[in-house]
Amino acid sequence: MSTRHSRAAARLMMTPSVLLLLGWMLIPLGLTLYFSFLRYNLLMPGTETWAGWSNYYYFLTDPSFTTAVRNTLVLVGGVLVITVAGGILLALLLDQPIWGRGIVRLLVIAPFFVMPTVSALVWQNMFMNPVNGVFAWLAQTMGMRPFDFFGRAPLASIVWIVSWQWLPFATLILLTALQSLDQEQMEAAEMDGAGPLSRFAFITLPHLARAITVVILIQTIFLLSVFAEILVTTNGGPGMATTTLTYLIYVQSLLQFDVGMGSAGGVIAIILANIVAIFLMRMIGRNLDR
Amino acid sequence: MARAVPLPRKALTTALAWTIGVLMFFPILWIGILAFRTEVDAIRPPLQVLAAPWTTESFAAVQQRSNYLRHFTNSVVIALGSTAIALLVAIPAAWSMAFVPSRRTKNVLLWMLSTKMLPPVGVLIPIYLIFRDAGLLDTRTGLVIVLTLINLPIVVWMLYTYFREIPAEILEAARMDGATLRSELLFVLLPMAVPGIASTVLLNVILAWNEAFWTLNLSAARAAPLTAFIASYSSPEGLFYAKLSAASIMAIAPILLIGWVSQRQLVRGLTFGAVK
Amino acid sequence: MRPKTSLCAAAALAVAAGGATAAELTIATVNNADMIIMQRLSPQWEEQSGHTLNWVVLEENVLRQRVTTDIATGGGSFDIITIGSYETPIWGAQGWLVPLDDIGGEDYDLDDIFEPVRAGLSADGTLFAVPFYAESSFTFYRTDLFEAAGIEAPTEQITYDEFREIVAQVHDPDNGVFGTCQRGKPGWGENMAFIGPLVNAFGGRWFDMDWNPQIDSEEWRNAITFYVDLMTEFGPPGAVSNGHNENRALFAEGRCATWIDATSAAGYIFNPNESTVADRTGFFPAPKQVTDRGTGWFWAWALAIPSSSQNVDAAKDFLAWATSREYIELVGETEGWVAVPPGTRVSTYENPAYIEAAPFAETVRDAILAADPSNPTAEPVPYTGIQYVSIPEFQGIGNFVGQQIAAALAGQQSVEDALAASQAFAEREMRRAGYIQ
């Protein structure tokens, strides 16, 4: 029912956002694209030459590349599964009548406010350290040998840390969604003899679908660029065990200062991220349209 | 209203919920304790740590080494500044997307979100060069600009999902009454969107406060926020658990308190339109 | 009132006349103990000079990346940077650093700084950084544990095989003491700093005279197999996360019987305020194996001024202060002589107060003077550097090899696979960089 006037106004109002983001995207992206075709090492200035596709060739044939893609998928997927499943369970629990719900909620959401660097440092040093950590102490008191988290299960350890940070976010969104669930419908289903499991599967879960989609979308955006947790704890190792695509690009462009190759990696990461994005958006689109 | 629940069941769920809550919070609680121990006490086994005497010497040591107040001020300025600008730019955009949608609206929105997937590590060098030429390195202005841009998509999207909840009929009615576009925005839309805007602000402040890559790499001394402050305690020589804990507490306490105080607001808006 | 005002005016005039308006300097440094002391004492310089300092104190890896980004792009964020003996010659030759041959006045006495240290911080005979402290590596050991096990501490340089036998005798994990702590954390400046000299001792080298990588050689295989076996059997759990700082803390806590690492850690280990084993620690040279060449490393942390700095004069003044004899005396008097920055000046080692407080002083000096970065291996090499190779590409290669060896140490792959992957990577990088066809 919008008039032409308001259409024009709408376009005008969108302009600043669009222009800013376009600039933010195109300028670095343009430069990155340009650099990706150069042989350009920051440590050897003045030696820039046209490299053609060789940066892409070297980046894609680097044995670390496939490992990095796999690790990225494991990290994002692992955290998503843990936070969504854990978030649903936690939301169901917090939706029950309990004493001191407000305080429990405060405790549960706290990790979301902690800087990634801090949480990585704290988990690594105070908990997972096999000599001085709390977990090592627990293992020893129970007569077991301390587990060397970052040596034996590095990627799982990082998934754990990141999940701890994002579980509150998932829980909160799912809890809010849960609270809007129609109680009468639940009671009617109960009258009809539906057990708790089938009530969950046929009423609760469909009701949560939108919220779950949102959780997945937002978290994926942030999880694809998880970086501080890896840098602080394992530096991408041991070997390539925790090198994600983001970390691999970091190694190329900011440890080896091979800007050309790092840029090629950046372009590839953007392409891959956009594939994921398109996939996600379709899912969202289906779920968010009313 | 919920039905009466048998008492034993309530006790059981309460116990379970509290156990999980305490476990989730335990890491923060633990650094809260370690921060008040001496370095030597902080590496003892947990039970001895608990029994050790309280001291504030780690805070004193941190305070002596770092200019906490400067880092704190920078964090505040950067988080609030970037949020304010993002809001200013995003409100009109979200408004027009929500109330004057076109076929392209959703694509624009999705495109905006996809800019957030640009891996920062890959574009640091280009941005660094631009910042150098613009004289923005180690300035709060520079950091405000970057954080505005990286959080803008989320802000637009969150606001869009709220605005969409507002029934268009109300706006129509206002328009019938002869409201101009400006007054429509100011007096009709904004008041209704306040809860949404509030939680957008909160989420954005949290994200900006905790952003560690850009803030660390584009600042040196003058504009360095708390993320840089933490980086100087991360792996020093010798024993460092107590000082690291003290510094961590100093870095996260402000945002944790804000988060706790405003959590109801935050939760109300954190739904991204997921709740019908 | 009047006299006071004119006094102020006179003071202001004097400052202006000196040409030195108060500058605000940004200094980037590592969060190492000696630098923290420097930061603590720096208000004295600020008072003397009228300039102010803004400190950027970062963890080593973050600092290196941050500073390199800035200097390579000419960002100009820093006036004073802390860099090592690896970067200095490379960056100096690039023209990124301000030459420092004219640093200080008469009393600064550049000749008092150890000649090899100066050489390590120069490019083409020009000094580009002044040493804050310098180090070699040697073996720390616990005298009480050796005594209890009935082991005579070696006086001559022993072999790694003999070292291993000793370690086996003092390994006592049930009492929380591990036979040896060595670096496992991947990185060219972390585990590779230990592994470089180890490989040298086993007769290996990074490159042959034509820059062909030699990482899949017999010598490397022997060295890395030895390392992985030693650490698996006698190392602490989680060794793969332990770098210099973690091991330093472990040793100071009394968890390690032996530790081969930087001589500069001695000031900390022998400081009773910091360490629980100050009165129970001894030292002997880092072991050899088939050769004694390049078995102890050489490293210096130094201060330099980026060419992009706008405050070169004030920065130079600070550099002269922080690396002067007077500064060393100041630390000696305020922090205790055991804590003074070691390895830089002849005069430090002629100072009776230091010799008395630091039982390790002469051994450290001899180790530093004996380390010869220009002649590091049994077979000839085209590069300088004992635990590193002084080419820009080394950071990338060293990090990668460090990661592969860490994976072997963690048991995720065999030594054979680790070295094969390392060799392949090094060949690729050297080909890309145009050293080999």
Molecular structure report:
The complex is a heterotrimer of chains A (about 290), B (about 280) and C (about 425). Chain A is mainly alpha-helical and about 290 residues long. Chain A has one domain (about 55-290): MetI-like fold (Orthogonal Bundle). In chain A, about 75% of the residues lie in helices and about 0% in strands. Chain A has a two-stranded antiparallel ribbon. The model of chain A has no long low-confidence stretch (mean pLDDT about 85). With about 280 residues, chain B is mainly alpha-helical. In chain B, helix 5 runs parallel beside helix 8. In chain B, about 55% of the residues are buried. Helix content of chain C is about 45%, strand content about 10%. In chain C, the strands form 3 sheets. In chain C, strands 2-1-3-10-6 form a 5-stranded mixed sheet. A 3-stranded antiparallel sheet of chain C has the order 8-7-9. In chain C, a hairpin with a 2-residue loop joins strand 4 (about 120-125) and strand 5. Chain C has 2 domains: about 20-135 and about 300-360, Periplasmic binding protein-like II (D-Maltodextrin-Binding Protein, domain 2), CATH 3.40.190; about 135-295 and about 375-430, Periplasmic binding protein-like II (D-Maltodextrin-Binding Protein, domain 2). The chains are: A mainly alpha (about 290), B mainly alpha (about 280), C alpha+beta (about 425). Chains in contact: A-B, A-C, B-C.
